[in-house]
Fold:
Amino acid sequence: MATNPDLELDDAQAKLKAEEDYLGLSDTPAEFVPIAQEEPVGELHLRFFVPSGKEYALPAIEIREVLECSPDRINPMPNTSPLILGMINLRGRVIWVCDLGQFLGDPNPVNTDRAELPVVAIEAGGMVLGAVVDRIGVVAWLDPEQLRPIENPLNRFVKGEWHLPDNKVVQLLSAEEILRSPRWINPQLQ
Structure:
């Protein structure tokens, strides 16, 4: 924008010029001062909850996508494990949908009597499974060096747990162990 130094700007024009400078719209570049931010520590994980309130996490690289699915879209399948809710079409690929909390031994089944169900599409080893959870938490950086072994390692699907500063415990799941589990055929197996 060419200006004549002999002309003075009125208050409205001066305010507009200041906004242009702030937004980077003027001919003269404004000085850019980056805001100091801490580097993320660890790996990116999706945190979510099962009906009992327990919080779990999966590495972001093991998640194909997270979606809200109407229960009407889940096609029930006869003669399958009670852990299997049915199947859905996920972008042209038919995948099983399960109650992840029940699979992990949670005493409460997921409430399917609602408009939308949160589904985490887990992917590992070329396999994809839709895991229905009670609710999605946050995507967060969690440091694998802070991961503690679990005290009762009966559940082979849990790799360890984080004890967070807010007194929360988040358990890390193994997508591959979940997908390859014989529990899909016989829920009594571990």
Q: What stands out?
A: Confidence is low (pLDDT under 50) at residues 22-26. The chain has one domain: 43-184.
